[in-house]
């Protein structure tokens, strides 16, 4: 009745070879990887534990028995899928075999016997584990095995047919196994069988798809994925398991230089352990591109806690480690040791997560546990019911979210009349640069989309920084909550201000004025500039002398046409009339400025071009009595023009404001655009990427001279503008961490030591190809931004146009989330995004442009 | 040479009696408790551990030896203070005695012997532990002991005089001991020896003060406080230790009703375990006041990790639990088990926290460990050096912060010329409503101040909610980071919107429009109101028909004089001229409204009074073509007047905006002021307390009718106003948690089931007394706010006045942090603050008013 299969027996490459494979794929092939879907069609849970040996496998076994042997509801038959991605101590230990054996016994004991088909398979193992399995049965020569992991494909089957009922199934799978009974990272290192995180998750994803999708019409399925050791025990690559299962990391490194260096090559083969190490080694050897793709992979879980003395602490800490990585824990299970550990646990969890207590587990190894499982029957039944109903609730909520959102949200910049329910994106989570998106159509699943809006121009962290920021946010909220700023000092605010003045403000700024967002930073900057100008031109003195309320002086700004500095009225007054300032939007807008049409730079037909506005030839502008206002946006203003304008203003004692809300912190490839323009302002505004893109915070930096114009002996002369959350601790902590992270070559692969600019992210050849495409009018690629204007006429062009919608819908199917600005579309990444990912985005965009053009051609012809 | 003392032997009350004691104090005595200082004069560290039995005491022992036996620097002698607040398994286990014994042996072994004085004392123990200690020696009759903790005061001394050098000291103290070797909460329950968190920390604080302060001039001191079990193991009250040592909780309950109920009384005596439980029991029996004072108590720590299989996970999780509570961990120490656990730990910690590895600890109980300590000598030396230099760095940083802040911060609303360095407050942390403030003068220490500014009107959480929010912030940052809002939906945003519409928007609002702060929420509200008004009055149709850019229609708002709606220009245009809008501050301000002088309500000489402005008698206002604008601030506007105004506007189809940025979410005692006014708006703005006061977020709620005026087939008709972080996940998660927390009687002691208003927080009698004080002009006490205007004339009155400064400086010495609005001062608490704390604040304020008045009298007379 028991069958032992051994399928193919080919050697599998080590991580190093995998890396080469990825590298090969990344430079030669133009097929970007497909989004990795996590099926949602059946309830699937991780089984976590706060320590080793607390009975995860007993819980899985109890669950499988409870699920398979409970009376069927509407379904004909059932399937329990048990996946054990990482197993050490194999073959003497095998959790999947334990479950398989126990269920085999259970099913035989049952009266009437259940018609059950059972299987247990082990897919890959280390060479030494494979030897130890196979030498007994096959006496295969040792030379058959190379290094790295072995394609074991061991399979045991037990067809336990009962009476003619429909056949239920137990499918147990161990994905990767090692021989030594130590932590997977050690076993992997010692047995030269290192497996990358991406390989674990890709294999897991494959097993999930195959296991869950095949019979979903006629079968009720419950799936558990059992982790190894504790929640933060390292996996085979050295990544902590709670990090490993949160995301897929696909590493690719340019190893060409390493190829030539055989010493390094073999060194890596031996030493390779943690991703971190690899990065360091690679970094030392080659200046070539390296990076990771992080994709979210977040399953809800059960935590097996610790009922022993000291176990409350470990259980709570493990729970917190999972929460700190964005996991949901739906139940805690622990063994009774007579210490009623469940009472403080329930109190801690405020009864929001159920805590279930299992009877004491017999310690005698000869005990077959049958009695214990009988005793635990009700507990496992409850646990199973909790899992099934949590699944139903989750699916229902995901399903309802688009409708509810459409009913109660009022999205900014959105014509609700034009947003059908099915186009609303349900974001289940994000990891690094990627959204996890609920996909209802076809097979219900969670799929990935690269957030090419950089979550609306704010986004910076890769997955590693996101995890660090999460911990920092927890720490800062616990340590400070929020504390008011004026006349106080606390560590995050001070560190943030120090880093700002030593970073983007270096060489000119002396003071940091915090606020909440770009608009408020701009309004504050305007107030500063007005005061400075008034001081420098004797207006203030006049005002104070005459103490007059008459506002005879009309101060205006000098700003650039097409510029945009935020949505509050003050910020709007400093921008030229546009769709945003019309009577429809803001009846109070007057536009208090002189708005210059600047020359812009762009790429068209593979060549860089410069637009020259007419006035630049025609007239001379009198800059007196005006304030210059820097600009950003998707038009790249000629830097030379900007520098000359700044110099001219300085000559006329007109304070210069740089609006770096969008452009600052590497958005355009430099930490500050002062480095691009080659000149510095008197005042500059920062927001968005300042906090790494996780939390609102803005800052207006100023020179000592600007600050001095507010100093005096009266409070009324001080700058009386502020917001409750000025310099709030969490924002400042996020900013401090992100500023350091982005500029450190140890943490940001795009930083080259000693250089002021990020490495080139957008493949020049591809950008040129796109700029020559007939559907494209112009392209601008700089730093983390690649924007393109589509050829469009009449109502198809401009901000209100919906012209790009169909193109962007197609790109979402490719796993790229973009948002149009009328007929302008853009790809935006973070300062740490690898050039390879950018290249993949460009390839996907180019392909869809081809399709788009064909359709548009047809429309034009037809 | 060994002495055994036994001092007094009085029975000590159980927790229940302590509670009664507190209760007594809280209603009858008018002496508020003194702030609890944590001395900073000497390095003091917590010793944490990720599990039991990992060698915390060995680490303490090695440290003490390394510190005491190292060559002295500039100091004559040294003192190592070892505190063990919680000991179970006593007397057979006593960590302080272990350390005492080991050091006794070490000092004898030493050549030349060190002149060392050693002592070990145990202050309180459970009765059964005391019996077990004392019955041997004293054969004391069992009847001598009552229930509760026993004042054991056991003391062992070893005067180990060496050659005539100055005497160094080892002082070991166990604060509370229980007999059973189980978790402290269990031991305390089983031995009827429950000790409250506040008692543990007050005793600890006392021991620290006595141990650190006495010899600080002539001695170098190092102090460690060793915890029991793992970081999250429960203490005797059931509170997790990582929570217990973070804050002092002083419980006080009104037990008068319970007194009459002997059944409940005895029930409590037996069942009393966790604070939570007590609250539930109390809550069920009495509607009287109960609550806690939370005060920060945050020492840096060493984490003793786990070198065993599975230990990486436990160590990392324990570290994360500590970070999640705002603790700093300066080093991790673990025992070598041959598994190189330190490698993944260092990788996880990114080398920012050192990881030290101790040699394997001999398991044989007969081993005296002398050899092991010799082997570990260098490790402990390094650890000691890390601790001493981290201390020096910390003190230096705290010392420098005020100066640095003065140099690089630009505080809002602050005349920097008037802020001397010594008045700047260095906030080391906050816990619940209290700041931890660095005090440099006298003895360097960390002291507590109640944040009576409610961190500038935003603050809400008590310490428990703060811990929950910290975990939620970590979770949300890990799960979502930030994801852009338009056309998307994600759980925190949806839940937040649902709660808003079912809470403050209930009965009228249908849509939630998110932004960043009160100002932006107001600007958005104005845009909504303009559009709605334009639709209702045919202006929009005219505009669209003629498609004219001419702005012939001048829209104005109708608002209240003295109102304040934020600092951005749009929000300012809707307020009457004031110091904030002068040419000095905002040259673009024009003030586009009709500003009504409203009648206000206040208390004076113990009576409520109403001010009636002249115009109310004189003229009739034409409300046509205007928009009403609600107001807040420290003037309480007559609710009847407001309701009539709202009705009048509605009759004229003028949209009504409620500015609830300050007043919303229980600030004035109701979740929304709609409940106070008895009418609803068309649009309302919320911010500040919306997130519980930890992170910026704002929302503008609107009716369906308002929303509909933006719906159409063109994007240009949509509301084109937004901010990058609109509905950011962390803000929405904080808001969802806080909204639920504040309104739930289970979590907010001030909520009475079925009632719309918070219980009265400000003692009426005291408020009346203050309102009758000669230094006071008027008082307004409502909800969480108690504001008073000081009698002041000429330049002493108004916003620019510094009149209140000296009064507020004195209050800071009493542990109350306030900030003036000119000659108006206020006390502000959170929705969960207990009335007893408010009463203490009033008492402190009243006392200082007396002093203040005496001084002012002298000035007037002199």
From TrEMBL, chains A, B:
<dbReference type="InterPro" id="IPR015421">
    <property type="entry name" value="PyrdxlP-dep_Trfase_major"/>
</dbReference>
<protein>
    <recommendedName>
        <fullName>Dethiobiotin synthase</fullName>
    </recommendedName>
</protein>
<keyword id="KW-0808">Transferase</keyword>
<dbReference type="InterPro" id="IPR005814">
    <property type="entry name" value="Aminotrans_3"/>
</dbReference>
<dbReference type="GO" id="GO:0009102">
    <property type="term" value="P:biotin biosynthetic process"/>
</dbReference>
<keyword id="KW-1133">Transmembrane helix</keyword>
<feature type="transmembrane region" description="Helical">
    <location>
        <begin position="244"/>
        <end position="267"/>
    </location>
</feature>
<dbReference type="GO" id="GO:0030170">
    <property type="term" value="F:pyridoxal phosphate binding"/>
</dbReference>
<dbReference type="GO" id="GO:0005739">
    <property type="term" value="C:mitochondrion"/>
</dbReference>
<dbReference type="GO" id="GO:0004141">
    <property type="term" value="F:dethiobiotin synthase activity"/>
</dbReference>
<keyword id="KW-0472">Membrane</keyword>
<dbReference type="InterPro" id="IPR015424">
    <property type="entry name" value="PyrdxlP-dep_Trfase"/>
</dbReference>
<dbReference type="Pfam" id="PF00202">
    <property type="entry name" value="Aminotran_3"/>
</dbReference>
<dbReference type="InterPro" id="IPR015422">
    <property type="entry name" value="PyrdxlP-dep_Trfase_small"/>
</dbReference>
<dbReference type="InterPro" id="IPR049704">
    <property type="entry name" value="Aminotrans_3_PPA_site"/>
</dbReference>
<keyword id="KW-0812">Transmembrane</keyword>
<keyword id="KW-0663">Pyridoxal phosphate</keyword>
<dbReference type="InterPro" id="IPR027417">
    <property type="entry name" value="P-loop_NTPase"/>
</dbReference>
<dbReference type="GO" id="GO:0004015">
    <property type="term" value="F:adenosylmethionine-8-amino-7-oxononanoate transaminase activity"/>
</dbReference>
<keyword id="KW-0032">Aminotransferase</keyword>
């Amino acid at each position: 009745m028991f069958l032992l299969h051994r399928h193919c027996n080919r050697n599998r490459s080590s991580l190093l070879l995998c890396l080469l494979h990825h590298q090969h794929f990344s430079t030669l092939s133009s097929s970007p990887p497909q989004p990795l879907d996590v099926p949602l069609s059946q309830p699937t849970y991780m089984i976590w534990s706060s320590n080793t040996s607390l009975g995860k496998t007993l819980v899985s076994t109890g669950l499988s028995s409870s699920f398979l042997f409970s009376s069927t509801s509407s379904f004909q038959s059932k399937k329990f899928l048990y996946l054990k991605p990482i197993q050490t101590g194999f073959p003497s230990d095998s959790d999947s075999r334990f479950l398989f054996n126990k269920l085999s016994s259970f099913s035989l004991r049952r009266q009437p016997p259940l018609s059950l088909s059972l299987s247990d398979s082990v897919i890959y193992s280390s060479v030494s584990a494979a030897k130890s399995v196979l030498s007994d049965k096959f006496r295969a020569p040792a030379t058959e095995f190379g290094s790295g992991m072995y394609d074991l494909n061991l399979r045991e089957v037990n067809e336990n047919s009962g009476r003619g009922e429909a056949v239920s199934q137990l499918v147990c799978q161990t994905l990767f196994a090692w021989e030594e009974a130590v932590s997977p990272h050690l076993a992997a290192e010692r047995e030269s069988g290192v497996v990358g995180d991406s390989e674990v998750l890709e294999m897991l994803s494959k097993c999930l798809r195959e296991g869950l999708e095949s019979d979903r019409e006629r079968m009720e399925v419950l799936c558990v994925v059992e982790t190894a050791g504790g929640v933060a025990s390292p996996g085979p690559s050295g990544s902590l398991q709670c990090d490993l299962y949160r995301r897929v990391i696909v590493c690719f490194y340019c190893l060409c230089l390493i190829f030539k260096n055989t010493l390094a090559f073999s060194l890596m083969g031996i030493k390779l352990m943690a991703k971190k190490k690899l990065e360091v080694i690679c970094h030392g050897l080659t200046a070539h591109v390296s990076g990771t793709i992080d994709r979210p992979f977040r399953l809800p879980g059960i935590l097996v806690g610790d009922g022993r003395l000291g176990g409350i602490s470990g259980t709570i800490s493990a729970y917190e480690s999972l929460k700190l990585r964005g996991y949901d824990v739906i139940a805690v299970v622990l063994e009774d040791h007579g210490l009623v550990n469940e009472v403080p646990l329930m109190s801690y969890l405020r009864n929001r997560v159920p805590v279930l207590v299992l009877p004491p587990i017999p310690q005698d190894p000869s005990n077959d546990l049958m009695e214990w499982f009988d005793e635990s029957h009700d507990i496992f039944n409850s646990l199973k019911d909790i899992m099934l109903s949590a699944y139903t609730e989750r699916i229902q909520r995901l399903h309802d979210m688009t409708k509810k959102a459409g009913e109660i949200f009022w999205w900014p910049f959105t014509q609700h009349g034009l947003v059908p329910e099915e186009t609303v994106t349900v974001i289940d989570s994000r990891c690094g640069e990627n959204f996890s998106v609920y996909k209802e159509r076809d097979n219900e699943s969670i799929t990935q989309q690269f957030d090419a809006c950089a979550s609306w121009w704010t986004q910076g962290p890769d997955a590693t920084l996101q995890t660090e920021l999460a911990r920092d946010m927890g720490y800062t909220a616990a340590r400070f909550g929020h504390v008011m700023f004026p006349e106080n000092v606390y560590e995050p605010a001070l560190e943030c201000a120090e880093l700002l003045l030593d970073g983007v403000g270096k060489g000119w700024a002396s003071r940091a004025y915090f606020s909440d967002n770009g608009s408020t930073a701009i309004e504050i900057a305007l107030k500063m500039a007005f005061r400075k100008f008034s001081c420098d031109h004797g207006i203030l003195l006049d005002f104070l002398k005459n103490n007059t309320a008459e506002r005879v002086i009309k101060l205006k700004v000098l700003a650039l046409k097409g510029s945009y500095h935020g949505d509050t009225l003050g910020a709007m007054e400093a921008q030229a009339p546009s769709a945003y300032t019309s009577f429809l939007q803001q009846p109070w807008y007057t536009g208090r400025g002189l708005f210059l049409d600047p020359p812009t730079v762009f790429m068209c037909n593979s060549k860089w071009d410069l637009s020259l506005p007419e006035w630049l030839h025609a007239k001379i502008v009198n800059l007196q009595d005006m304030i210059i206002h820097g600009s950003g946006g998707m038009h790249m203003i000629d830097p030379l023009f900007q520098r000359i304008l700044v110099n001219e203003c300085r000559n006329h004692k007109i304070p210069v404001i740089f609006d770096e809300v969008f452009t600052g912190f590497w958005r355009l490839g430099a930490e500050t655009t002062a480095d691009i323009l080659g000149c510095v302002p008197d005042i500059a505004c920062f927001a968005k990427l300042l906090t790494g893109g996780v939390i609102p915070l803005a800052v207006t930096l100023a020179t000592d001279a600007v600050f001095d114009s507010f100093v005096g002996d009266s409070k009324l002369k001080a700058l009386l503008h502020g917001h409750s959350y000025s310099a709030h601790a969490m924002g400042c902590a996020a900013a401090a961490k992100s500023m350091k992270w982005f500029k450190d070559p140890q943490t940001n692969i795009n930083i080259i030591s000693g250089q002021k600019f990020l490495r080139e992210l957008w493949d020049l050849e591809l950008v040129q190809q796109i700029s020559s495409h007939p559907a494209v009018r112009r392209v601008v690629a700089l730093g983390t931004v690649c924007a393109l204007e589509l050829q469009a006429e009449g109502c198809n062009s401009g901000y209100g146009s919906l012209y790009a919608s169909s193109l962007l819908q197609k790109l979402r199917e490719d796993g790229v989330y973009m948002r149009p600005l009328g007929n302008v579309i853009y790809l935006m990444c973070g300062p740490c995004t690898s050039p390879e990912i950018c290249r993949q985005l460009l390839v996907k965009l180019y392909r869809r442009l081809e399709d788009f053009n064909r359709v548009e051609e047809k429309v034009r012809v037809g």
